[in-house]
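Researcher: Can you fold this with zinc ion in place?
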Amino acid sequence: MEFDLIIRNGTVVDGSGAARKRADVGITGDRIVAIDDLSAATAGESIDATDRIVSPGFIDVHIHSEVNLLDPSNPRRHGALLQGVTTHLAGPDGFGWARLKPDLARDLYQAEIFAYGEVPLDFDWPTANDYLSLFPGNSPANVMPQIPHCAIRLEVMGWEHRHATDAEIEQMKVGVRDWLDAGASCLCLGLDYAPSASSDTRELIELSKLVAEYGGIYATHQRYNDLGGEAAWLETIEIGRKAGIPVHVSHAGVDEMTGRIMRELDDAVDLTFESYLYPAGCTDLTLMLPIWASAGGPESILERANQPELRAQMVDHLQDKLKTNKGTARIVFADNPGKRYIGEEIGDVAERLGLEPGEFAMRMIVDESPYCLMVYLRGWDDATTEKMIRETVQHPLMMVASDGIYHGASSHPRGAGCFARVLRLAVREMQAVTLEEAVRKMTSFPAERFRIGDRGLLRAGYGADVVIFDEATVADRSTWTEPFLEPVGIDRVIVNGRTVILDGTPTSETPGQIVRRA
Ligand SMILES: [Zn+2]
């Protein structure tokens, strides 16, 4: 038999969770053709994977990479691919811009720019498929669409901070259907972000019913800001139950409260969640404003900040949020347009300037609008962090996803380190899960959940997305101070049969395809 490519002598961890086995992997074109003893077969190219793990390419269901993948000038373009992440789900947190008039799309992008940075795009995509057509031939990774609720709502209601009428919900379904027809499997929410934060539960249930008809799911950055932790989880569960839709919670971990909620789930709710397993979050500073104050995006925030009474309320709210019972919350400047105070804690800078933290935060929001990207340190000790990692990664409903951000002077290390860190820390050092189980949580589990039919397993007929790595040395190197250091121990990353990472260095290949709902 003749193949384009054979990966020989490797130890196959096939993504299913099954025990490893010695086998060769034969690839022709963009497909896996055989997994077997192929010592008698010939190939255009042979790779020796002796003493290496051969696994499916990893799938990241929550990653802010899509527009950066299209930008050859972005030095972080391959930040996730360097870890073996070959399929990226677009639209995390409901962020997206297709179907909007270009001016409105740009407006929304400004509100979400903290997660992406400046990109050379024209924002003129009248349909979901117009946007998706950017990727084939231009992206080194596969991209799967999700339905971005921020854009769906903005298209129908603009920035209005109120609940939708029945007629408006019906109009939103036109946009939802367009994304479903383009192959999206998931309605994606960022309920702390404008304009989605203005929705009520009823709107989300009604849209979810339509998505459920297509066999899709509901994935959410929950309403933490407005409802707080437990009520936010209960809203998600209510949506799952009333819309009859599987639900997925973004960037969550197991703690006393979430562990209890998941133990007490009844059979009517089909729930999963994803975690990046670091003791810190990362988002825009405006997320600390009350919902009414951030409604309308950056320009509206500035208008309110010019009205003394509203400004005073915003400062009070910021002060409340920043002042915890143990002192000032530990929040570090990761990036902003003026590159000010990068790497410094907000409380330290405020003290130096002789300002209360709330007043200082307000000044930064106004001066640096449209964004101050921040790293929110949880302030846990090592034992607490280790307990969180162990209980989270061992949870049967948990899959790995990075929430990676690929711009910024001092962003969160998760974007360049999350997957490699799980293999180093959770598998090798803590032995909290087996390698086979960790790989399953990066491959077939997200593929099944997000309805990707032919990725996530090393099987004949599946897309030829493959990672070859050394289980003894694979490790993240990204840190809080050097967040984009690339991982080590990953020899090769293959997307659709073509090598995009070789010995830790990106090639010039752009074999990424659009992955659509099976
Ligand atoms: Zn989020």
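Model: Folded with zinc ion in place. Residues 93, 190, 221, 250-251 surround zinc ion (CB under 6 Å).
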